User: What shape does this take?
Amino acid sequence: MDDQEIIREFLIESNESLARLDQDMVELEKRPKDPDLLAAIFRAIHTIKGACGFLGYTTLEAVTHRTESILSQLRDGKRDLNPELVTLILEAVDVVKSVLVAIETAGAEGPDTYDDLRKRLDAACSLPAGAAPPAVAPSLPPEAEKVSVQKGPAVSDSTIRVDVGLLDKLMNLVGELVLARNQILQFNAHQEDSTLNATSQRLNLITTELQEGVMKTRMQPIGVVWNKLPRLVRDLATSFGKQIHLEMDGADTELDKTIIEAIKDPLTHIVRNCCDHGIEKSDVRVRARKPAQGKLSLRAFHEGGQVNIEISDDGAGIDVQVLKNKAVQRGLIRLEQAERMADREALSLVFLPGFSTAAEVTSVSGRGVGMDVVKTNIEKIGGVVELASRPGEGTTLRLKIPLTLAIIPGLVVTLTERRSSPRNLEGVGERYVIPQVSLLELIRLEGESGKRQVERIHETPFYRRRGSLLPLVYLSEVLQIGQTVESNVVNIVVLQAEDRQFGLVVDGISDTQEIVVKPLGKQLKGLNCYAGATIMGDGRVALILDVSGIAQRSGVLQESREKSRAAAERREHSGSERQTFLLFRAGSFERLAVPLSLVARLEEIPLAKIEHAGGREVVQYRGRILQMASLARILEPAVDHAGRLQDPAQVVVFNNGDRSIGIQVDQILDIVEDTVAARQSAERQGLLGSAVIGKKVTDLLDLYSVIAAAENGWFSDRSTLRATGATVMVAEASSFARGLVRNSLEMAGYQVVEAADTQTALRELDHRKIDVVLAGFDLPPDNGSGLLESMQRDPALAQIPALALIDSADQAQSERPPGLSGYQLKFDRGGMLRSLASLASAVARPEHVAP
Amino acid sequence: MKKTKQTQNGDLAADGHATKIAVSEAAPASREYATFFVDGLFFGIDVLQVQEVLRYQEMTQVPLAPGVIEGLINLRGQIVTALDMRRRLKLPPRAEGQTPMNTVVRTKEGAAVSLLVDEIGDVVEVDSETFETVPDNVDPAARDLLEGVYKLKDRLLLVLDTEKTIDIAANVA
Assistant: This one.
């Protein structure tokens, strides 16, 4: 061994023992009397000191020597460990580390001699050993040391260091062996020879075992990464003035080395996050009746061929509402989006780029770079990040990570041969592999009816998957290998690309296989639709599809980005009173609109399926009877529409509790989002008035009267309605808004009283029994506050719950005026019905009991 | 494969004129070339860069790839991109039923690429004195890929620059 070699060995060994040292020191703080621990720490420092003396590293020797002296005092029980001492020792360890780095990079110790640290170490050494320990103690440690010394070598003797490059090469060779094995097995399937059968069977077993064995050599326990965390958590906790207890479970869970490398930074970031704004300060915790010491726990375990890593804290958790507000404030989502968003969905907002919930930026986190990077990094290695949180109880982040990158499960799909590709002489067509991580589900549509389920908007195909439109992408078209082959079956592979889902239509789906991923030559690097290639059992090459690449190429991804960008622009341009409308045509009305929130579904129903029952048109629909009505006939009863019926009929389905009604229109035009410049004119029965929607004058449908006309008293039939029949007063200046609110309330079975100003409202309140008041924010003359105050003054009215109708969430004031039960978004139909239901039932119940 | 000696006057080269020496300095150091034919033209590649020569292999097409890329072949577990030299050199396509041969070359980075050629020739040893740079009036499609020309007795040997030949990444959209 020459000098260089010796120094290299020294560096490797020292770094290894230092990595353990951090953890041991933190552990020691908890169990300051543990002789084994003390001995281990002492030994590590001692070994480094010895080598330094030998190699002539004076600074290093000086620092380690003084550290060793303190440690020996501790070990011999001459003094007790205190936090300051731990900090000092850790500081010394840091210096040792940085000097080691200097030696590794520059070949020498560097100019800094760390005199200050030396002095402090000296001072610490010479402190009077005030807290002298009991006399029994000294006899114990040496014994313990002997025992652990005996343990030590046994472990190191059984391991050797192997170059990672060599392991990679072995891995590749095994990959090839697996392929050769597959080929032999496939060939063997057609052979009768029993010897060959037995041999190939044996080959099969041995290869599998060899593959597993070699895979294991690349495996490292996740503890390699976790080792650094106790120190990190301790330092963070000290600097934030928090108490954090770190628990680690499953540190021996093994992962491929490349994956270990890849999760190192994300994991550190997550732990920092937890310490910074997950776990609260001790006083806050005590006030919340939680133990002063916060708990951060890491758990790793294997499950279903994947490694799960859970990082959970028992901190403040994430307040979904705060998240939403922040996201709206930053313009990442729209207000309506935020309102509709489920908690789970809202939690995933933290993964959006540029998002930070920390109120103030600290040195550790809060700058808005982070969780999105964590997510991207984990997804890059085929992993998934899940976030769960309960306000006040804590947050859990779960990472699901594949065991290895070299071999992945994939779904093999086929494209049959196209006539336009004469180069492929085989009859089988080409196979492609889709990585299983992106796979959500498989859908198979058969026969004519199946084909009809693929619908088109312009030329873009869609499939209705559980009520929402799934864009379809034909693989043959994306790859430009000829037209879609006519067949009786449509195979849809539903895939997840970034935040989007889409269906990839292929000609055939064969099976799932474990495939060995091989890189493509640099000649093909420019093609983003392939992630690599693999060799199939028959020895032929198959391409592995890059799902995001395919999505981008087909426009599925790009489109959504543009859409959100356009939405963001529109958001900047206008105020808040935006609504989404369904536009359609019926009879001589070229452009009719109804708020999309009132629409349950859109259907196409063949005319042949429309039956007549009780003098009305009905269809059997989802196991029920759906009443139908032609909008043209309702709006223009005098005109004969018989010749103009379309087949299949375009039907807009509205729901009312358990019952539905289908309104037949001539054509669905579009769905647009717009602010409504309403211009009232109730000249005609069935219309609320006209408004400019999507830059064109559009008639707004009075859904209530239309349905009433269609049903002849459907709504008066109170017994079938779910709601209690409570009376709601809608006090709102805009008659358009009144009309819409009225529509939805009456459909839900409420009696509705309208009032355009405070005076009318108060008059109505005197006249009738009103159960709930919905007061518009813009109610003249004084924005509704007068109405509330008058109600408060009158003991008979003070009990009536009142909701303020607002246009956007920012109008809600943090301090509610007296008498106001809450805020309600004007156009959030579902939310309004829910809050009304709770208020009305609270009011209605005593009413029922009293008589 | 047999080696054919094409030169006998190697010793004389040292006494040649200054201009000739300059030419020989520009010529590649290696004087052995693996040769092949593409559309009747005679090409050579530095023999040290050629890994092996194979019969036509089954190929997997790569949709959307540049036309020069014929497909991917499985070379003992390694995936190798095959380039059609006819298309690379902008020559007319191969006749129906004529199967090309694979000349697998190894790149500087250690990756393997297969060049599909019409027919494999011998390994030839050449005299640096017969080297000349490519005349300017040759079609740029071919000239850019050539290091130069050896004027052999009966024909011209066109020396391919392997790195340039397989560098088609720029053409990928």
User: Anything to note?
Assistant: Residues 3-9+21-168 of chain B form a domain with the OB fold (Dihydrolipoamide Acetyltransferase, E2P) fold (CATH 2.40.50.180).
